Amino acid sequence: MAENRTTSGGVEDADSDDGRTADKSAQGVVTAFGRTMKTLRIRAGLEREELGKRLGYSASTIASFEQGRRIPPPRAIDRADGELGADGLLTLWKEEVERAQYPLFFQGMAQLEKEAIELLSYDTLIVNGLLQTEEYMRAVLAMRRPPQDPETIEQRVTARLARQDIFDRRPTPLLSFVMDESVLRRKYGGGQVLRGQLEQLLLLGQRRNVELQIMPHDLEESAGADGPFTVVTRTDGKKSVYMETQGISTLETGPARAALVAARYGIIRSQALTPRESLKIIEELMGEL
Questions:
Q1: Residue 231 three-state SS
Q2: pLDDT value of residue 73
Q3: Which residue from 36, 62, 185, 246 has the highest number of Cβ atoms inside 10 Å of its Cβ?
Q4: Could you report the per-residue pLDDT of 243-271, keeping only the tens digit for each?
Q5: What is the count of structural domains for the chain?
Q6: pLDDT tens-digit series, residues 83-94
Q7: Locate the HTH cro/C1-type domain: which residues (predicted)?
Q8: In this structure, what DSSP letter does residue 119 have?
Protein backbone atom coordinates (compact mmCIF):
# COMPACT_ATOMS: atom_id res chain seq x y z
CA MET A 1 0.00 0.00 0.00
CA ALA A 2 1.38 3.42 -0.89
CA GLU A 3 1.10 6.80 0.77
CA ASN A 4 0.99 9.80 -1.54
CA ARG A 5 2.57 13.01 -0.42
CA THR A 6 2.02 16.05 -2.60
CA THR A 7 4.27 19.10 -2.28
CA SER A 8 4.12 22.19 -4.49
CA GLY A 9 2.18 20.36 -7.17
CA GLY A 10 4.47 17.31 -7.34
CA VAL A 11 3.66 13.85 -6.02
CA GLU A 12 6.07 11.72 -4.02
CA ASP A 13 5.29 8.09 -3.19
CA ALA A 14 6.30 6.62 0.18
CA ASP A 15 5.85 3.18 1.68
CA SER A 16 3.09 2.74 4.22
CA ASP A 17 3.97 1.79 7.79
CA ASP A 18 0.67 0.43 9.13
CA GLY A 19 1.76 -1.38 12.31
CA ARG A 20 5.44 -0.80 11.57
CA THR A 21 8.01 1.98 11.86
CA ALA A 22 7.51 4.71 9.25
CA ASP A 23 10.49 3.75 7.10
CA LYS A 24 13.89 2.12 7.33
CA SER A 25 15.78 5.41 7.60
CA ALA A 26 13.62 6.53 10.52
CA GLN A 27 14.17 3.22 12.27
CA GLY A 28 17.89 3.61 11.70
CA VAL A 29 17.84 6.96 13.49
CA VAL A 30 15.93 5.49 16.45
CA THR A 31 18.26 2.48 16.66
CA ALA A 32 21.40 4.64 16.49
CA PHE A 33 20.06 6.94 19.20
CA GLY A 34 19.28 3.95 21.43
CA ARG A 35 22.76 2.52 21.04
CA THR A 36 24.28 5.90 21.87
CA MET A 37 22.11 6.18 24.97
CA LYS A 38 23.10 2.69 26.10
CA THR A 39 26.82 3.42 25.59
CA LEU A 40 26.56 6.61 27.64
CA ARG A 41 24.61 4.84 30.40
CA ILE A 42 27.21 2.10 30.70
CA ARG A 43 30.00 4.68 30.68
CA ALA A 44 28.23 6.49 33.53
CA GLY A 45 28.07 3.23 35.51
CA LEU A 46 24.26 3.22 35.76
CA GLU A 47 21.89 0.29 35.57
CA ARG A 48 18.71 0.70 33.57
CA GLU A 49 16.65 0.70 36.77
CA GLU A 50 18.64 3.59 38.25
CA LEU A 51 18.47 5.66 35.08
CA GLY A 52 14.76 4.91 34.87
CA LYS A 53 14.20 6.21 38.41
CA ARG A 54 16.00 9.44 37.55
CA LEU A 55 14.00 9.93 34.36
CA GLY A 56 10.66 8.66 35.70
CA TYR A 57 10.52 5.45 33.67
CA SER A 58 10.71 1.73 34.36
CA ALA A 59 13.81 -0.29 33.53
CA SER A 60 11.88 -2.02 30.76
CA THR A 61 11.05 1.34 29.17
CA ILE A 62 14.71 2.36 29.26
CA ALA A 63 15.48 -0.96 27.56
CA SER A 64 12.90 -0.14 24.87
CA PHE A 65 14.58 3.24 24.29
CA GLU A 66 18.00 1.65 24.01
CA GLN A 67 16.84 -1.12 21.69
CA GLY A 68 15.03 1.26 19.35
CA ARG A 69 11.63 -0.26 20.10
CA ARG A 70 10.21 2.93 21.61
CA ILE A 71 10.92 6.58 20.89
CA PRO A 72 11.58 8.80 23.93
CA PRO A 73 9.82 12.18 24.11
CA PRO A 74 11.99 15.32 23.76
CA ARG A 75 11.90 16.07 27.50
CA ALA A 76 13.21 12.59 28.27
CA ILE A 77 16.09 13.10 25.86
CA ASP A 78 16.99 16.39 27.55
CA ARG A 79 16.94 14.82 31.01
CA ALA A 80 18.88 11.76 29.88
CA ASP A 81 21.55 14.01 28.39
CA GLY A 82 21.99 15.72 31.76
CA GLU A 83 21.86 12.57 33.89
CA LEU A 84 24.41 10.78 31.70
CA GLY A 85 26.74 13.75 31.39
CA ALA A 86 26.42 13.59 27.60
CA ASP A 87 27.28 17.30 27.11
CA GLY A 88 24.68 17.68 24.37
CA LEU A 89 25.45 14.46 22.50
CA LEU A 90 21.94 13.08 23.04
CA THR A 91 20.15 16.36 22.46
CA LEU A 92 21.79 16.56 19.04
CA TRP A 93 19.55 13.64 18.09
CA LYS A 94 16.38 15.22 19.42
CA GLU A 95 15.02 16.74 16.21
CA GLU A 96 15.66 13.62 14.12
CA VAL A 97 14.30 11.29 16.78
CA GLU A 98 11.19 13.43 17.18
CA ARG A 99 10.58 13.39 13.42
CA ALA A 100 11.03 9.61 13.32
CA GLN A 101 8.12 9.05 15.72
CA TYR A 102 5.65 10.07 13.01
CA PRO A 103 4.64 7.97 10.01
CA LEU A 104 6.65 9.04 6.96
CA PHE A 105 3.60 10.53 5.26
CA PHE A 106 2.85 12.75 8.30
CA GLN A 107 6.33 14.11 8.98
CA GLY A 108 5.85 17.14 6.72
CA MET A 109 2.56 18.01 8.41
CA ALA A 110 4.06 17.59 11.88
CA GLN A 111 6.74 20.13 10.98
CA LEU A 112 4.16 22.54 9.58
CA GLU A 113 2.22 22.40 12.85
CA LYS A 114 5.35 23.59 14.65
CA GLU A 115 5.57 26.60 12.33
CA ALA A 116 1.85 27.41 12.22
CA ILE A 117 0.43 30.79 13.08
CA GLU A 118 -3.02 29.56 12.04
CA LEU A 119 -4.52 26.09 11.71
CA LEU A 120 -7.96 25.37 10.28
CA SER A 121 -9.30 21.82 10.52
CA TYR A 122 -12.50 20.15 9.34
CA ASP A 123 -13.19 16.60 10.57
CA THR A 124 -15.93 14.15 9.68
CA LEU A 125 -14.94 10.77 11.14
CA ILE A 126 -12.95 11.17 14.37
CA VAL A 127 -11.95 13.97 16.72
CA ASN A 128 -8.88 15.77 15.43
CA GLY A 129 -5.63 14.37 16.86
CA LEU A 130 -4.73 17.74 18.38
CA LEU A 131 -7.92 17.58 20.46
CA GLN A 132 -7.90 13.92 21.47
CA THR A 133 -7.54 12.65 25.02
CA GLU A 134 -5.01 9.87 25.56
CA GLU A 135 -7.83 7.36 26.15
CA TYR A 136 -9.55 8.36 22.90
CA MET A 137 -6.23 8.06 21.04
CA ARG A 138 -5.73 4.53 22.29
CA ALA A 139 -9.28 3.54 21.37
CA VAL A 140 -8.91 4.86 17.82
CA LEU A 141 -5.47 3.34 17.28
CA ALA A 142 -6.66 -0.03 18.64
CA MET A 143 -9.35 -0.13 15.95
CA ARG A 144 -6.84 -0.08 13.09
CA ARG A 145 -6.95 -3.05 10.73
CA PRO A 146 -4.61 -4.77 10.27
CA PRO A 147 -3.87 -4.31 14.00
CA GLN A 148 -0.86 -2.29 15.10
CA ASP A 149 1.54 -3.80 17.59
CA PRO A 150 1.50 -2.35 21.15
CA GLU A 151 4.85 -0.58 20.75
CA THR A 152 3.68 1.20 17.59
CA ILE A 153 0.52 2.31 19.39
CA GLU A 154 2.62 3.68 22.27
CA GLN A 155 4.79 5.51 19.77
CA ARG A 156 1.76 7.05 18.07
CA VAL A 157 0.21 8.10 21.40
CA THR A 158 3.45 9.76 22.50
CA ALA A 159 3.66 11.59 19.18
CA ARG A 160 0.09 12.88 19.32
CA LEU A 161 0.47 14.08 22.89
CA ALA A 162 3.65 15.92 21.90
CA ARG A 163 1.80 17.67 19.08
CA GLN A 164 -0.63 19.14 21.59
CA ASP A 165 2.09 21.50 22.78
CA ILE A 166 0.71 23.76 20.05
CA PHE A 167 -1.96 24.98 22.49
CA ASP A 168 0.60 26.48 24.87
CA ARG A 169 3.16 27.68 22.35
CA ARG A 170 4.25 31.31 22.21
CA PRO A 171 3.43 33.23 20.11
CA THR A 172 -0.02 31.69 20.34
CA PRO A 173 -1.32 30.30 17.03
CA LEU A 174 -4.95 30.74 16.02
CA LEU A 175 -6.69 27.35 15.98
CA SER A 176 -10.08 26.65 14.45
CA PHE A 177 -11.79 23.25 14.42
CA VAL A 178 -15.08 22.35 12.76
CA MET A 179 -16.37 18.81 13.13
CA ASP A 180 -19.52 16.99 12.16
CA GLU A 181 -21.92 16.37 15.03
CA SER A 182 -21.76 12.65 14.24
CA VAL A 183 -18.10 12.64 15.34
CA LEU A 184 -19.18 13.50 18.86
CA ARG A 185 -21.80 10.78 18.98
CA ARG A 186 -19.52 7.86 18.15
CA LYS A 187 -18.66 5.99 21.36
CA TYR A 188 -15.20 4.85 20.35
CA GLY A 189 -13.75 3.12 23.39
CA GLY A 190 -17.08 3.29 25.24
CA GLY A 191 -19.19 5.92 26.95
CA GLN A 192 -16.58 6.90 29.55
CA VAL A 193 -13.94 7.51 26.89
CA LEU A 194 -16.38 9.68 24.95
CA ARG A 195 -17.34 11.59 28.11
CA GLY A 196 -13.70 12.34 28.81
CA GLN A 197 -13.25 13.47 25.23
CA LEU A 198 -16.25 15.79 25.39
CA GLU A 199 -14.97 17.26 28.66
CA GLN A 200 -11.64 17.98 27.01
CA LEU A 201 -13.37 19.70 24.09
CA LEU A 202 -15.26 21.93 26.52
CA LEU A 203 -12.00 22.94 28.23
CA LEU A 204 -10.14 23.57 24.98
CA GLY A 205 -13.08 25.47 23.53
CA GLN A 206 -12.76 28.04 26.31
CA ARG A 207 -9.22 28.99 25.30
CA ARG A 208 -8.95 32.40 23.69
CA ASN A 209 -6.97 31.11 20.70
CA VAL A 210 -9.26 28.12 20.02
CA GLU A 211 -12.60 28.04 18.22
CA LEU A 212 -14.62 24.82 18.18
CA GLN A 213 -17.66 24.60 15.92
CA ILE A 214 -20.10 21.79 15.25
CA MET A 215 -21.67 21.05 11.87
CA PRO A 216 -25.19 19.94 12.89
CA HIS A 217 -26.38 16.59 11.54
CA ASP A 218 -29.68 18.05 10.28
CA LEU A 219 -27.97 20.60 8.02
CA GLU A 220 -29.45 20.49 4.52
CA GLU A 221 -26.35 21.86 2.78
CA SER A 222 -22.63 21.55 3.53
CA ALA A 223 -19.52 22.77 1.72
CA GLY A 224 -17.60 19.99 3.48
CA ALA A 225 -19.17 17.09 1.62
CA ASP A 226 -15.82 16.23 0.00
CA GLY A 227 -14.34 15.19 3.34
CA PRO A 228 -11.90 16.27 6.07
CA PHE A 229 -8.84 18.49 5.60
CA THR A 230 -6.51 20.86 7.42
CA VAL A 231 -5.13 24.20 6.27
CA VAL A 232 -1.95 25.47 7.93
CA THR A 233 -0.55 29.00 7.58
CA ARG A 234 3.13 29.46 8.40
CA THR A 235 4.82 32.54 9.78
CA ASP A 236 5.80 33.59 6.25
CA GLY A 237 2.13 33.58 5.21
CA LYS A 238 2.35 30.48 3.02
CA LYS A 239 -0.55 28.06 3.29
CA SER A 240 -0.50 24.27 2.99
CA VAL A 241 -3.33 21.75 2.79
CA TYR A 242 -3.22 18.31 4.40
CA MET A 243 -5.75 15.55 3.66
CA GLU A 244 -6.11 11.87 4.56
CA THR A 245 -8.30 9.18 3.04
CA GLN A 246 -8.16 5.37 3.02
CA GLY A 247 -4.44 4.61 2.99
CA ILE A 248 -3.55 7.86 1.24
CA SER A 249 -2.21 11.10 2.69
CA THR A 250 -1.66 14.30 0.72
CA LEU A 251 0.22 17.48 1.62
CA GLU A 252 -0.18 20.30 -0.89
CA THR A 253 1.72 23.59 -0.82
CA GLY A 254 0.61 25.06 -4.15
CA PRO A 255 -0.76 28.58 -3.43
CA ALA A 256 -3.80 28.33 -5.72
CA ARG A 257 -5.00 25.05 -4.23
CA ALA A 258 -4.33 26.20 -0.66
CA ALA A 259 -6.25 29.44 -1.21
CA LEU A 260 -9.21 27.54 -2.67
CA VAL A 261 -9.43 25.09 0.24
CA ALA A 262 -9.01 27.91 2.78
CA ALA A 263 -11.95 29.71 1.13
CA ARG A 264 -13.99 26.51 1.32
CA TYR A 265 -13.20 26.29 5.03
CA GLY A 266 -14.59 29.79 5.45
CA ILE A 267 -17.89 28.64 3.95
CA ILE A 268 -17.93 25.54 6.15
CA ARG A 269 -17.34 27.66 9.23
CA SER A 270 -20.21 29.98 8.27
CA GLN A 271 -22.55 26.99 7.89
CA ALA A 272 -21.61 25.48 11.26
CA LEU A 273 -22.99 26.45 14.65
CA THR A 274 -21.25 29.31 16.41
CA PRO A 275 -18.60 28.44 19.03
CA ARG A 276 -21.03 29.31 21.83
CA GLU A 277 -23.80 27.18 20.32
CA SER A 278 -21.34 24.37 19.70
CA LEU A 279 -20.18 24.22 23.31
CA LYS A 280 -23.83 24.03 24.36
CA ILE A 281 -24.32 21.05 22.01
CA ILE A 282 -21.28 19.34 23.56
CA GLU A 283 -22.71 19.87 27.05
CA GLU A 284 -26.04 18.38 25.92
CA LEU A 285 -24.28 15.34 24.45
CA MET A 286 -22.48 14.81 27.76
CA GLY A 287 -25.84 14.86 29.51
CA GLU A 288 -27.02 12.02 27.29
CA LEU A 289 -24.20 9.69 28.36
A1: strand
A2: 82
A3: 62
A4: 988 767 889 989 999 999 999 999 999 99
A5: 2
A6: 999 999 999 988
A7: 37-72
A8: E
